Amino acid sequence: MRVALFVTCVTDTLYPGTGRATLAVLERLGVEVDFPLAQSCCGQPQFNTGYRRETEPLVRRFAEVFRGYDHIVTPSGSCAAMVRENHPRIAARAFGGRRADEVAGAASRTYELSEFLVDVLGVTDVGAYYPHTVTYHPTCHGLRTLGLGDRPRRLLENVRGLELVELPGARECCGFGGTFAVKNAAVSAAMGADKARGIEGTGAEAVCAVDNSCLMHIGGTLARRGSAVRPVHLAEILASTDGGTATDGTAGGTAGGTREAAR
Amino acid sequence: MSGGTFLGMPAFPEAAAAAVRDTRLRGNLRHATGTIRAKRARAVAELPDWAGLRAAGAAIKDRTLRHLDHYLERLEEAVTAAGGTVHWAADAAEANRIVTQLVRATGESEVVKVKSMATQEIGLNQALEAAGIRAYETDLAELIVQLGDDLPSHILVPAIHRNRGEIRDIFRSEMGRWGRPAPEDLSEEPAELAEAARLHLREKFLRAKVGISGANFMVAETGTLVVVESEGNGRMCLTLPETLISVVGIEKVVPTWRDLEVFLQLLPRSSTAERMNPYTSMWTGAADAEGADGPRDFHLVLLDNGRTDALADTVGRQALRCIRCSACLNVCPVYERAGGHAYGSAYPGPIGAILTPQLRGTVTELDASLPYASSLCGACYEVCPVAIDIPQVLVHLRERVVEGGEATVRGRRTTIRPARGHAAERAAMRAARWVFEHPAALRAGQRLASRTRRLHPRRLPGPGRAWTASRELPEVPAESFRDWWLRERGNGSGGRKGREDQTDQTGQAEQTERAGRAEGGGDR
Ligand code: SF4
């Protein structure tokens, strides 16, 4: 089984701890993971803002870079959704023919991390230890486009020491929405504030999600409010063990990893 | 005094920002949409075949839209055969002219109206007022909007932005100027408010000689029009007057009664969360001369007003499936906070954000801002009973705004120029795309950001301020994932996938083909 990590541009640049955590979880489960260096961005920011033509070369690049891998795993619900839902549509319109088939093929082999763990590896207990109270925010693209369902929850429920608390209004968008966050900053901030209040009300120490871009918005909002709740990516919880850390000591056994500095 | 106008409103972000600061408005909307959301979910969950019904609804609409000319002609034949008269209106001005002339021909200067989105869309009340004709809205929420000289902010509940106290105040101060006044001691009890409206409206129903309506559906095979409602005011307006004029968008036609059956299940559960709406009125043409009930004179005004333009757009046309249930408004987190008025048209919320720019174009700043009035969370698509992929259409219309391109405007294929004010964004997107096509440059940028990370400001100037006004910026890490990988696992360890510049010549298909093959072969 040839598995490639698609780390995504946001995680690569801002949250490398999540990338290392994803790698750690997969390797702990015996998966050999490759990181093709020619990868970059799935094109989601461009596409969702209306720049379809700027997206086309990135769609082509994705299919080329990940050619030959059985599975492409990414720690981002929205990037997985972009690849699976939109890459084939964009390619069919822009390229057609064999190249479009290749793009569709790469799209069908792309998995968000929790999908890969549960559906492909058939694992819900990854042997993690995380002695904290956590609430889970299902991000929109994971929830509605990918249909992740209870996969992330099942993984969290099997983490030793972890207490999972319900987030009221969990299914409501956090208000990030890519360029929406700046184009409609007032509404985005109002949605973020409501989400942050809901999170704070749970009494959890950390809020978990499968998407760092949403966590950047939620975490940034929480931090500005002076809240003590930490944003933490699912991969970082799953990578934590009672041996402390599984991610080379840099992501840290505690939640947040590099994100902690943002508080 | 027949309500305000949406003309000249600011772009969505400004209007929405003002609405967000209005705590009473947000309270009213949160309460109202939250309640109906939960009820809809329960009503839909009752039907085991909801997904099948939804797919059938979408399929029937798509098939009808593909052969719209055919079904409209059948409808016209059937309506005419049943004694009605069919008029075709290309745009709002023509529709208003036709209706005004028809009312004038009756010699009347008053009409009663059933709540209708099409007549809101064309601004019929204002046009009639300019011609000296008073139009009385008879739907309770529409009455509140009209008495308050206000604008509708929701498809189903136009006065959703008002709470009971505000409604009582409007009734007490305004009803007397339009007819029977509200009682002096009117309280904010719903039953009392409804009773005041009932008495006020009753004298208008009994006096009116002309009724104006829209329709939820038109059945082509028999020429039958259908209105579904909850209050009975529709039944009054549709049966008491001598003349009935219905203004209906051309996309409201369904081929047969069997098709109608699907929508009569989808609509009430989605809109009011009821298994069946209290009143379903159906009429076919005009009443026969001798002793029959109902209007003797029936006119159907078929309205285009941008619909055939939308129909020519292969992605955007799905918006014409809409049955105006308003489920997408009720679940939309942006609508809940921005309120309906910010959308600047009779169609607020997610459906307005995709319909208005298709009907009116993307020329004004407001209309060009509507496709961006969404975080693309997809809650609207999830609940839409005719499966309109609203996020897909939003992104499609964003492309029209920023890149321009081909579109049909008033029946002609036209090349649309990109909207103004996107030059800097376009340049940034191009630059980003270049960087993402050259991962070595991406890595250089990441390294520069890492080296200077202690110098990064906490609050940004310019457009970045929109982020830092309410959120902290993420701290740039000491090392990107890419750099970590190169340091820890790099140097061709185990023949792992090679250099990052390998597909850097993606511009040339040939070269990339070769590079790709070399890459594929070189692995392992
Ligand atoms: S778009 Fe769909 S959910 Fe929204 S009003 Fe129309 S039919 Fe209802």
TrEMBL record, chain A:
Protein's organism: Streptomyces pini
Signal peptide: none
Region (Disordered): 243-263
Pfam families in the cross-refs: CCG
Any one cellular-component term (Gene Ontology): cytosol
Gene Ontology molecular function terms on file: oxidoreductase activity
Lineage: Bacteria, Bacillati, Actinomycetota, Actinomycetes, Kitasatosporales
Domain of life: Bacteria
Entry protein name: L-lactate dehydrogenase complex protein LldE
Cysteine-rich domain sequence ranges: 3-83, 134-218
Automatic annotation (TrEMBL), chain B:
Composition-biased stretches (Basic residues): 450-459
Residues of the Lactate utilization protein B C-terminal domain: 397-487
UniProt keyword Repeat, yes or no: yes
Domain of life: Bacteria
Keyword vocabulary terms for this entry: 4Fe-4S, Electron transport, Iron, Iron-sulfur, Metal-binding, Repeat, Transport
UniProt keyword annotation of Repeat present: yes
InterPro entries documented for this protein: 4Fe4S_Fe-S-bd, 4Fe4S_Fe_S_CS, FTHF_cligase-like_sf, Helical_ferredxn, LUD_dom, LutB/LldF, LutB_C, NagB/RpiA_transferase-like
Region named Disordered: 447-524
GO BP, sorted A to Z: lactate metabolic process
Composition bias, Basic and acidic residues: 480-490, 511-524
Name used for this protein in its record: L-lactate dehydrogenase complex protein LldF
Organism this protein belongs to: Streptomyces pini
